Amino acid sequence: MREAGRILAAVHQELGKAIKPGMSTLDVDRLGEEMIRSYGCEPSFLNYCGYPASICVSVNDEVVHGIPSADRILKEGDIVSLDAGVIYKGYHSDAARTVGVGEISKEAQFLIERTRLSFFQGIKNAKAGNRLFDISGAIEDFAESFGYGVVYDLVGHGIGSSLHEEPEIPNFRPGRLHRGIKLKPGMTLAVEPMINMGTPDVMWMDDEWTVVSADHSLSAHYENTILITDNKPEILSLTEDEKAAGFLELF
C-alpha cells in the first residue's frame, strides 16, 4: 500500500500540473489512465460498480464522481477535482486533489486551500487509541469556521485489498455520544473532506454518478490514504511538492 500510495501521489502531481484551459474532461481521464498504467498499475475506479472512467473529474459545483466527457471543456477560472485510485499488487490507494484551471478567484483558492487544511486538522487526531470521529469532528469544526458547508451525504472509508472497506469516515461529528471505533496501528483509511462554499446539501444528477452542491456553489475535495500508527499517521499518497511545501509539519 505504501507503493500504491507513492505511485498515486506521482500521478496526482503530474496530472494536476497538466490541467489547462481547452482540455476536455475526457482528455484528463485519458491522460490520468495513461499515467497510472505507465507505473504498471491498474486504475481502481474503471468499471467499479459500473463507473465508466479511470479518473473522477468534477468541475466547479460538482462535488464528486463527475464522468469525463469530450463535450465538457475546461475554461479559465474553473476549479476541477481529480479523484483517482490505483491497484498495485492487489492493494489500493485512493486520493483526490482540487486544482485551478489557469487563474482562479481568491474565493476559489481559499476554498481549495482550506479544504486541504481541514484534512490536516482532522488527521492530527488519527493516532492509535483515539476514536474515529475525533478525525471527523476536527474536519467539521475547521471547515465550518469559514462558513463552508461540510457534505453529509458522502464519506471517507477504509481501504486495503478492496477499494471501499469498513469503517465509513464522515467529515462531520455524527453525534456527541458516539465517538466511533477506536483507532489501532495498521489501519489504513481514506480520509476525504468534501467541502462546499455554500450549503452542505447535494443532489445526484441524472447519470446517477455526478453529485453537485444543491445551491450550485463551488465544491472542493481533498483526500489521502493514511496509515494509523502509535504516533503520527503516515500519509501514503502525499505528493513530493506537498512534502517540499512543509505539509508534513501540519499534523
Structure description:
- Helix content is 27%, strand content 25%.
- The chain has helices at residues 2-18, 25-38, 106-123, 132-144, 240-244; strands at residues 42-43, 55-59, 62-64, 79-88, 91-100, 149-150, 156-158, 165-169, 188-191, 194-196, 202-204, 211-213, 219-221, 224-227, 234-235.
- By secondary structure, the chain is an alpha+beta fold.
- Helix 1 (2-18) packs antiparallel against helix 2 (25-38) and helix 3 (106-123) packs antiparallel against helix 4.
- It contains 5 helices and 15 strands.
- The strands form 4 sheets. It has a 5-stranded antiparallel beta sheet. Strands 1, 2, 4 and 5 form a 4-stranded antiparallel beta sheet that branches. Strands 3-12-11 form a 3-stranded antiparallel beta sheet, with no helix packed on it.
The fold-level CATH name is: Creatine Amidinohydrolase
CATH architecture: Alpha-Beta Complex
Give the biggest beta sheet: 5 strands, antiparallel
Cα-based radius of gyration, to the nearest Å: 17 Å
Helix content: 25-40%
Mean pLDDT: 97
Strand order of the largest sheet: 8-7-9-14-15
Domain module tally: 1
| Beginning-to-end CA distance, first to last residue | 21 Å
How much strand?
Answer: 15-25%
Number of strands: 15
User: Oligomeric state of the chains?
Assistant: single chain
The H-and-E topology, N to C, reads as HHEEEEEHHEEEEEEEEEEH
What is the global morphology?
Answer: globular
The number of helical segments is: 5
Q: What is the CATH class?
A: Alpha Beta
Q: State the fourth-level CATH superfamily.
A: Creatinase/methionine aminopeptidase superfamily
Instruction: List segments where confidence is low: pLDDT < 50 over at least 5 consecutive residues.
Output: none
Structural class designation: alpha+beta
